[in-house]
Amino acid sequence: METQATVRGASSKMIPLALPKGEERLCELCQKRAQLQCNLCRVTFYCDAEHQQADWLGIHEKICPLLIPIRTTTILSLQRAGRIETQLKKAELIEICRLAAQRKLSERKHSEALPAAQFCLRCSIDVHGSSTGQLVPAYLLLAEANMGLGNLAVVADLLSQAEWAVLKSPECGHAVQQQLHRSLGHLYTATGNLETALLHFANDIYYASEEYGLDSTVTCDGYFFMADVFAKQGKMSITRSLYSAVAHTWHCHLTELLHSHVQFFQNPDELLEPSYDKGRRAEGDEMLRTMLEFEQDNSRKEPAQIALVAHCLAMLWFLEGDNLKALGFGGTALQASQLIPNRDLTEAIRGLLQLVQSLQTGPPPGSG
């Protein structure tokens, strides 16, 4: 209902485009001849109502008034100070669009991410030029949105442009290189070129380890994607080994987060609650569920791996505030842990279950 209301609201904010003879405007999304105009900013145009509504939902609602000063020519805007101010406003728009696209992508709303990613790229070109490494983040956002929509030819073209920009920009850092190779790995996995995909994921891991460290969850994600490729090749022993490495990295990471979370409740005046990236939560949940299902479906189940991964999921959902899911995965972890001699893991799982149950029946620890 909320989405329908938003679309109806968007429709009421457009008017037919009437221009003097000889003048032409292009659609914000497809660059075809425009027939409609945004009634609020009056500097944004569309070929039809469908594209206007898509842009409104994707990004225009957030940036509509911000477009007026950068798309309106005044005497001040033609002066040097005015041009500098316009560039600063465009830089602000790039960041707004980048964050909006990332949020939509983390929610798997690929079609809604497209307008934000497209505007981010166009604005980046305006600010930085057409052949610079600073365009790569926008290319990658747009590629990810199109990957989710199955537009693989478009993805290949975008990533080719991103590769060229990186080659021409030696100053591109490890983080940008890592993101590019991960995107290329996903593309070649989707097109069935698995050996090339493995090469790019190996580069992904290298650059991630340089930027974030060997024990980072960002680095271990590369191992997960390599494992997925090996699974497609039928190399299950390698897949299981890589999954085990990923599970141990996530377990250490989530254990630290859980410890900080509990300390915060026990000493709220001494420790700030740790920040928790919900986009990373969604990615972690998807990977950990994949690994858990892989192990549970295996004819030669390893209880230790099931306990470890299920414990990760229990901690993940406890940190997210979903106690029912935390209890469910915690129960799975406890059952599997009782089949192995690792008492430390069993005690840790029991401790988490007791903590969750105490929150179900009473105030948070340390609140009394």
TrEMBL record:
SUPFAM superfamilies attached to this UniProt entry: HIT/MYND zinc finger-like
GO molecular function terms noted in the UniProt entry: zinc ion binding
Keyword Membrane listed: no
Domain MYND-type: 27-64
InterPro entries the record matches: Zinc_finger_MYND_domain (IPR053248), Znf_MYND (IPR002893)
Gene3D superfamilies, alphabetized: 6.10.140.2220
Keywords assigned by UniProt, alphabetized: Metal-binding, Zinc, Zinc-finger
Name by which UniProt lists this protein: Putative zinc finger MYND domain-containing protein 12
Organism (species): Scophthalmus maximus
